[in-house]
Each structure stands twice: as structure tokens, then as C-alpha cells.
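note to self — DONT lose this again. spent like an hour looking for the file last time. sequence + predicted structure for the chain T wanted, 121 res
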Amino acid sequence: MPIFVDPTAKIPYVLKDDREKPEAEQTTFFFRVMRASDHAKFSDALVVGDDDKISNWTRWRLELLRYTLVGWEGADAPVFEADADGYPTEDCLSRLHYEVRFELATAANDANKVSDADAKK
């Protein structure tokens, strides 16, 4: 397990359906490693099962995106909007199709699991 991670690094991700498209037609999403305080709030809500925080799997995915998604870019991509704390706005997340949010949440979860091999790069 790695000892240190770069909390400012942007981790790129291209949707599976976009990977076969020419690069100019792809949308690239960017994640960050979850901040320590956000990870604590997120984990506490899962363990405690607090209905006001995270009550189900769909809400869990949305919160994960809120804590980790830091931007996107692409020819047809709308402007990424963040609030004063740097989190995507509700309107920004609502622009993403449900299936895209699902795939991105899975990618965000994976991005927060740094392997030993990745840590040595």
C-alpha cells in the first residue's frame, strides 16, 4: 500500500463508449483522490447508515462523484461548474446521464484505490 498520494493530481478518465472514437470527439473526465476529511464524512455515513447523508446505493454514487469529480473537457462538453468549495454543483452533476454517473462513480472509486504498482510510478 502506498504511503503518500498527491491530492492535487487530476486523474483522467474516458468513458468506455468513447474510447473507440477519435480523440477529438472524446470527453475526458478528471478525478482527484478524495480529501481526508471528505473520506471521513463519506465513510462515516456508510458505516452509520445515516439516512440524511447516504441512504442508498444511488446516493452513494452521487456523493462519491461530488467529492472526487473535478472537471471534464471535450468538444461538446458543457462548462464544468464548481461551488466555492471546489465541488461540482447539483446542476453540473444533473447534466450527466444516469448511466454515465454510474460508470464515473465506479471509476472514481477505483481512482481512490491506489495499488502498490501505481504508487511506484
